[in-house]
Amino acid sequence: QVQLVESGGGWVQPGGSLRLSCAASGRIPSTWTLAWYRQAPGDQREVVAGINSDGRTKYKDSVQGRFTISRDDASGTLSLQMNNLKPEDTAAYYCNAVELIMRGGDWGQGTQVTVSS
After folding, report:
1. Has residue 1 got a pLDDT over 80?
2. Is the terminal CB of the chain with fewer CB neighbours within 10 Å at N or C?
3. CA geometry: angle at 54 spanning 53 and 60, to 5°?
């Protein structure tokens, strides 16, 4: 089973930037649809950004223009560049793949992003 490990989170002031990384313990097929999710306390886990096998991306409206998702299948890395961060972006961020979710795969530990003054 492929395992995904998130990293890069931390504390940042509003307007700051962070780059999250998701490293795969095994090969990530280029056909997989990958995505970043986040969950704030008391809220549902939601999709923040996704990237299809052809490289097409889609973003949650509130992060459009601020976040950029990218993938490097050769290195098995999924990234999320987050700019102009806002307090509302505070959450635990997770990466996953549609194919893994369909198989009932586990979620990783996530990486915490905290945006505050």
Report:
1. no
2. C
3. 75
Question: Distance between CA 52 and CA 57 in Å, rounded?
Answer: 6
CB atoms within 10 A of CB 100: 19
Burial (Cβ within 10 Å: 0-12, 13-18, ≥19) of residue 90: middle
Q: How far apart are CA 56 and CA 67, in angstroms?
A: 14
Q: DSSP alpha helices (H): ranges in 1-117?
A: 98-102
Say which residue the tokens 């998701």 belong to.
Answer: 22
Give the Cα separation of 67 and 38 in Å (integer).
13
For residue 105, is pLDDT > 90? no
Residue of 78, 61, 77 lying closest to 69 (CA atoms): 78
Angle at 63 between CA 57 and CA 69, to 5 degrees: 35
The string of pLDDT tens digits covering residues 71-83 is 998 888 999 999 9
